[in-house]
Design goal:
With about 140 residues, the protein is α+β, with helices and mostly antiparallel strands. It contains five helices and three strands; from the N terminus they run αβββαααα. It has helices spanning about 5-15, 65-80, 85, 90-100, 105-125, and strands at about 30-35, 40-50, 55-60. The protein has a three-stranded antiparallel beta sheet, with helices on one face. Helix 1 (about 5-15) crosses helix 2 and helix 2 (about 65-80) packs across helix 5. The protein is globular and about 45 Å long.
Amino acid sequence: MLEPSAAARRHFEHPRHVGALDPAAPDVAAALVGEPASGAILQLHLRVDAAGLITAARFKAYGCAWTVACGSLLAEWLEGRTLAEAARFRHHLLVETLDAPPEKLHCAVLAETALKAALRAYSMKPTPPAAIQSDHS
């Protein structure tokens, strides 16, 4: 088992923004990604205001310490960001900040996948969502 780095351990032992938001709310996007067979699942909820600012981010994770740490850091990073900034997010930020080893790259990729799924879910909401713009669509 790979021991978490000091940064990953802090996010694992004291995760930030754990929980859920009401996915039925018009300003909330929800995503659930992962494979139960692989042992890593990440749920991500975002609350977005009319200007396209992420005002709340909540996550739940099932998996190793690295999965929890990636979910925690992602949720922490997202709050206060615009949808456009979130759309440009890449998992490399998690890998570098948490000093994740190559064997745990999939945990950071899972977090990025959850974010992309939540952004897609938000863009499909019946209420006209704030614009999501990205150079990497």
